[in-house]
Design goal:
The chain is built from seven helices and no strands. By secondary structure, the protein is mostly helical.
Length: about 140
């Protein structure tokens, strides 16, 4: 009898504990929003549409406005959720949420776009230097003229 009562108590406590925590996928969505993924997706979308507009000036502005209304950042988030789900455990996501809610996490979120932009420029410069060095060495060794 004591065993049955203990078992019922354990099962009830486990179910109650599970009910209190949002499902992993909801936590992932929250994490992606907190990290600014929606904002980044919208900025990318605006940039893509801007490039299309420049390359297709004959297309009416109304078309692009309709496209912007139809395309949603939430579609990008929907695509990202299974990726995060694949590589992070429930506990990982909870810890990431705690980090990104913290002051240093908020600083990381705020600084990441400019760091990425500067990193891309540094990568471009580095790639050019590597390319020049490879071409120079190929010429010196007689592989190209």
């Amino acid at each position: 009898m004591k065993y049955a009562i203990a078992l019922i108590f354990f099962i009830t406590a486990s179910i109650a504990g599970m009910a209190q925590q949002p499902p992993k996928k909801e936590n992932i969505r929250e994490l992606l929003v907190l990290m600014g993924s929606e904002k980044l997706a919208m900025q990318s979308l605006d940039k893509m549409i801007s490039i299309y507009k420049e390359s297709m000036p004959q297309v009416a502005a109304e078309f692009w406005n309709e496209m912007k209304k139809e395309l949603k950042a939430s579609d990008f988030i929907d695509m990202m959720v299974p990726i995060y789900d694949k590589y992070y455990s429930d506990d990982d996501i909870v810890q990431l949420l705690a980090f990104y809610r913290s002051p240093i996490g908020q600083k990381v979120i705020g600084k990441t776009p400019v760091i990425l932009e500067e990193s891309m420029e540094a990568g471009k410069q580095w790639g050019e230097k590597v390319g020049e060095k490879v071409i120079s060495r190929l010429k010196a060794k007689g592989y190209t003229s």
